[in-house]
Amino acid sequence: MSDSDYANDVLVSADWVEERLDEFESDDSDLRLVEVDVDTEAYDESHAPGAIGFNWETDLQDQTTRDILEKEDFEALLGDHGVTEDSTVVLYGDNANWFAAYTYWQFKYYGHDDVKLLDGGREYWLENDYPTTDEVPEYPAVEYEASGPRESIRAYREDVENAIDRGLPLVDVRSPEEFSGEVLAPPGLNETAQRGGHIPGARNVSWSVVTNDDGTFKTADELQEIYAEYDIDGDETTVAYCRIGERSSVAWFALHELLGYEDTVNYDGSWTEWGNLVGAPIEKGEAE
After folding, report:
1. Backbone phi, psi, residue 234, to 5°
2. What are the mean pLDDT values of the chain's consecutive 10-residue runs (288 residues total)?
3. Which CATH number belongs to the domain containing residue 34 in this structure?
4. Predicted local distance difference test score (pLDDT) of residue 58
5. Which residue from 85, 190, 199, 245 has the fewest beta carbons nearer than 10 Å?
6. Is residue 3 part of a domain?
7. CB within 8 A of 245, min separation 6: which ones?
8. Is residue 13 among the annotated active site residues?
9. Is the whole model's pTM more than 0.90, yes or no?
10. Number of structural domains in the chain
11. One of 171, 242, 255, 265 is an active-site residue; which one?
């Protein structure tokens, strides 16, 4: 396998996007470009021309239930921004596509198959001097009808408990300090759990090992080799988790979409849920 031999055609290059900016900016285009960040201050300053800006926390999360959007809210969000069921949607964002990967997973959950990630994300686009603007596009609203949900790519508490009981692979993509229980959150971010540590039996495979220094994804060969070191080869259901579900979406994307390990699921409740559950087992200490 080489970098062109990913299991699915789900990555596009910055050059590919730049060549189609006129189409992305057109009202009646079937191409839509979306930047997804943890907040929209960066988007407001500069973004790729024609890109819609989504705030991960307020646009893509249900603020009442701490959950992904209900289907009708997802439909309204996309329809209001001129996205149809037939649109090819290209997502990109900050932190090497953390939140864009989460949004990609949510698109797939609600049955939108024609969605891709811009390889390298926002930082790659800016650092390589691709065009930017501060103009916010407005596209004619349309009716959007989602399918799904596709529960086959999502894990819940009971799925994690089942994975522990059966000895299935659990991939904790957080930092070694979070995994060991030394800290509860990355530096500068709010702590969201009562307890530190990791789910029993989990392997600590950082989200960052699947990307290069410039934020682009490693080749399929390299990804396969990385996960094989942890005895993850797609033969068993693999559960990815992190703190709030966004970093684990990067690992899910690499495993499920790039390597084609169909039985990979994203536990989006992640440590924020598990670390606060009464009676849920945890382990502390460094990875073996």
Report:
1. 90, 0
2. 76 98 94 93 96 87 76 96 97 94 97 97 97 97 95 97 97 96 87 92 96 97 97 96 93 98 97 94 86
3. 3.40.250.10
4. 82
5. 190
6. no
7. 102, 266, 267, 268, 269, 270
8. no
9. yes
10. 2
11. 242
